[in-house]
Recover the amino acids of this structure.
């Protein structure tokens, strides 16, 4: 069972002109234990909060200092409009969840939970993707090392691969790191 | 200056949880009658009563009629959380104020609702803080198959797990289902230290009767060794269960009929005068009574039934009541409430322990550790060249 999500101590920035929307948000976020800052100017990349809520009706490019594939914090779009261009803008900023305006207080906690989860999943996926890219890039290295072990031990490709993996595990290295070490002249433990 | 205050009174006084709805309605009716007598002729309180009989569609329909046709800006009502969540959009649309008087599962703080019923930091959490060390940490969860049962069971699981205890079983029944054979068999087989029941009405009554029988067959399941505990069982349901049947079982409430305070003695005298001396007062009755007083007195103070004005008139205002001093917290729209643990004895509860007023924390923020900024997930992508 996953524990009840909570946000106590989170710093949230609401990027929206002050008014009823920001008042409602600030009240409810305060209740949920967040520290809230209201702002209607580009966010400072050097001082990012834990969560950003942005006006997608009036938001402009440059308000958020990131590209969507490297969005550093959970992002919630505040949207009253149905205009496709504004929905696209919210997506382009990397919005993890949406709260429709006028804001119903019951929409806020669910959006927070969803945004944090989506953001975490996005990060995990990006990390996994980066790892896979790295492994593909280093594939020739592994193939080279396997060839070398096959020659040295006069064994099959499968056995060579297994030996390489075993040695990598023993040394607590990735397969790719082990392959590089081998190709640079290090010896494997016999057996 | 307002001369008529129209108050919708929307409780299911027929259907599966009629006993609860009837106590809520009677508490409201008593307060309305008294207020009318106190305030005099310049100002009339016009209650509009509605009985949705436990049907979500009828709750919505009646609430809409009350606000859109009858001119009510305030409705006291709904028993289940399902009904409350059904009615809230109507209140939001017409900017009305709903006054909700029943204990519920928390995770809500709507601007169009004033909550005078207890949320989990006022019932379940103090209950388990007492029971886990004294009764044991092997717990069985029984619930009604809707948001109250689901969320209470989920929260109970979280509290028990955090305390190093174990949920030995869990089962939810549809509201009104009295086929509790499997549930009781499971309790018998799993041998919990206690059972938390978040069931409602007939299911709960059937369960309590079956547990009495089980306790007679096997002393391991008497209320002393394996009590059934709940956060919504009150005096008003004891006659339906059968007097004496559930003796020894436990429940929490912000009020019990047996509380010996001057405010409660006064309330009980008024109830006896109107409903007879046999009538036991439940927390539903007492909360509904106090809530109507809070609402109407605030309207009289500000001279308006405009919900914004009424809410403003409640700010920093404390009203004495049989539940102790009541004050609506501006930030949460909830009220602080005392916690009492009662043991069923005949037609009432023997109060075992009490805690003074606990401020409502509907999102359970207080029991959580502060998350530092470093907790927030920020990307740490390795640069791949």
């Amino acid at each position: 069972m996953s524990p009840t999500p909570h946000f106590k101590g989170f710093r949230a920035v609401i990027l929206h002109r002050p008014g009823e929307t920001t008042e409602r948000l600030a009240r409810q976020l305060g209740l949920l234990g967040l520290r809230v800052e209201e702002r209607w100017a580009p966010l400072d990349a050097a001082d990012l909060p834990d969560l950003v809520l942005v006006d997608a009706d009036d938001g402009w490019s440059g308000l958020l200092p990131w590209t969507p594939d490297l969005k550093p914090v959970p992002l919630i779009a505040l949207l009253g409009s149905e205009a496709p261009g504004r929905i696209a803008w919210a997506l382009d900023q990397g919005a993890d969840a949406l709260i429709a305006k006028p804001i119903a207080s019951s929409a806020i906690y669910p959006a927070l939970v969803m945004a944090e989860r989506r953001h975490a999943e996005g990060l995990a996926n990006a990390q996994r993707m980066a790892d896979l890219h790295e492994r593909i890039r280093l594939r020739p290295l592994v193939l080279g090392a396997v060839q070398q072990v096959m020659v040295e031990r006069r064994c099959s490709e499968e056995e060579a691969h297994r030996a390489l993996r075993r040695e990598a595990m023993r040394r607590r290295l990735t397969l790719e790191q082990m392959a590089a070490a081998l190709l640079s002249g290090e010896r494997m433990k016999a057996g | 200056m307002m001369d008529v205050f129209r108050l919708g009174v929307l409780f299911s006084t027929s259907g599966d949880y009629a006993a609860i709805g009837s106590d809520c309605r009677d508490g409201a009716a008593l307060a309305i009658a008294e207020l009318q007598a106190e305030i005099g002729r310049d100002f009339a309180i016009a209650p509009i009563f509605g009985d949705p009989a436990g049907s979500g569609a009828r709750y919505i329909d009646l609430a809409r009629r009350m606000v859109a046709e009858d001119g009510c800006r305030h409705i006291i009502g709904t028993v289940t959380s399902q009904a409350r969540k059904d009615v809230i959009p109507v209140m939001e649309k017409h900017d009305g104020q709903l006054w909700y008087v029943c204990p519920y599962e928390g995770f809500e703080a709507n601007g169009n609702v004033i909550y005078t019923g207890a949320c989990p930091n006022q019932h379940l959490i103090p209950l388990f803080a007492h029971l886990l060390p004294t009764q044991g940490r092997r717990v069985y969860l029984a619930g009604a198959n809707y948001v109250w049962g689901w969320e209470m069971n989920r929260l109970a699981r979280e509290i028990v797990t955090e305390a190093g205890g174990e949920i030995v079983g869990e089962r939810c029944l549809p509201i009104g289902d009295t086929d509790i054979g499997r549930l009781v068999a499971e309790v018998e087989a799993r041998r919990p230290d206690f059972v938390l029941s978040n069931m409602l009405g007939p299911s709960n009554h059937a369960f309590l009767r079956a547990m009495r029988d089980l306790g007679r067959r096997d002393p391991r399941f008497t209320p002393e060794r394996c009590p059934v505990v709940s956060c919504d069982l009150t005096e008003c349901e004891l006659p339906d269960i059968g007097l004496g049947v559930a003796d020894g079982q436990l429940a929490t409430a912000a009020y019990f009929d047996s509380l010996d305070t001057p405010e409660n003695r006064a309330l009980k005298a008024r109830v006896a005068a109107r409903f007879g001396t046999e009538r036991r007062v439940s927390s539903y009755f007492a909360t509904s009574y106090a809530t109507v007083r809070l609402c109407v007195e605030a309207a009289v103070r500000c001279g308006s039934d405009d919900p914004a004005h009424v809410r403003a008139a409640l700010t920093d205002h404390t009203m004495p009541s049989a539940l102790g001093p009541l004050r609506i917290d501006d930030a949460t729209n909830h009220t602080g409430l005392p916690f009492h643990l009662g043991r069923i004895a005949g037609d009432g509860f023997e109060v075992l322990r009490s805690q003074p007023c606990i401020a409502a924390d509907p999102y359970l923020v207080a029991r959580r550790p502060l998350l530092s900024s470093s907790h927030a997930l920020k990307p740490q992508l390795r640069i791949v060249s």
Q: What stands out?
A: Chain A has two domains: 11-134, 138-183. The helical segments of chain A are 20-31, 84-92, 108-137, 139-153, 157-170, 175-183. Chain A touches chain B through 40 residues (CB under 8 Å). Residues 108-137 of chain A form the longest helix (30 residues).
